[in-house]
Amino acid sequence: MQVIQIGSLAISVKWLLLGVGLLIGLFVIKFWVSKTHEAELHKRVFDLLVNTLILGFFIWKGSLIILEPSIVMKSPLSLLYFTGGSKGLILAMIGSLIYFVFKGRKINIPNPLIKKILAVTALSGLIGWTMYDFAFSRTKLDKTVQEGQTVHQNSDEIGIKEGNKAPNFQLENIEGQQVQLSDFKGKKVILNLWATWCPPCKAEMPHMKDFYQEQKGKDVEIVAVNLTTSEKNPDRVEQFVKDYGLTFPVLLDESGEIADVYHAITIPTSYFIDTNGIIHKRIVGPMDKEMMTDLINGMK
């Protein structure tokens, strides 16, 4: 999975290209209808298309309620930060299609025109998806070669850049036991830096919980480092873990040293570390279960 980082927002390239494809299709249809039909019909068609896209977006966002009701109940903020992913997109497409056809007939848009518009829209979305698939395949191939070279060159270099060896550390977990990052070598690790007061961290945690449960027995680990120096009440951490039913290791950064080493300025910040202890990806901002799964599957 390719991810673009914009500030504290991590956006999947596939959704970005799909959106670009649909917007291009929208303006192609607008130009075509304006040249071939009267102005009044052109306005009706354009307004309908815009409303359909807006409806589709909200169905996609809201589909999380249907697909992951337990997550939404535990953390309503999930609706702000996340979508229904690939399954939600299918629901959004179906809902938008029904709305467009029903509303189009109601406002007297000719059936042949409706069919042509749907065909152009579908083609635009397909072009966007194909662009992603082609770019991803090429990028993945190039990245495999580059990663081999990077690991060879930088695997002994300790740092927080992709290709660096993740800095080791030792912290106490909430049970008072000493845990080192190196204890998890041989596993794919998500190193997550978070705090109980952080809204996107709260939204992310139910996704992490479900992801962790699905990955049992697959040599995948989540190491959640609480930025304890930023907590008003450090005792709140243990209660937070109980309230959210977290079963992965939760460590306490009581000195703030790990936050500094891993540059956790905006939280949550997560590092995907491969089985050799090499940093594969850094994500700033909340992640849903689908993004975590795709990124973990893309690691060795």
Automatic annotation (TrEMBL):
SUPFAM superfamilies: Thioredoxin-like. GO terms for molecular function: antioxidant activity; oxidoreductase activity. It comes from the Bacteria. It holds the Pfam family AhpC-TSA. The chain crosses the membrane at residues 15-33, 45-67, 79-101, 113-132. Gene3D superfamilies: Glutaredoxin (3.40.30.10). Residues 160-300 form the Thioredoxin domain. PANTHER family: THIOL:DISULFIDE INTERCHANGE PROTEIN DSBE, THIOREDOXIN-LIKE PROTEIN YNEN. This is Redoxin domain-containing protein. It comes from Neobacillus citreus. The lineage of its organism: Bacteria, Bacillati, Bacillota, Bacilli, Bacillales.
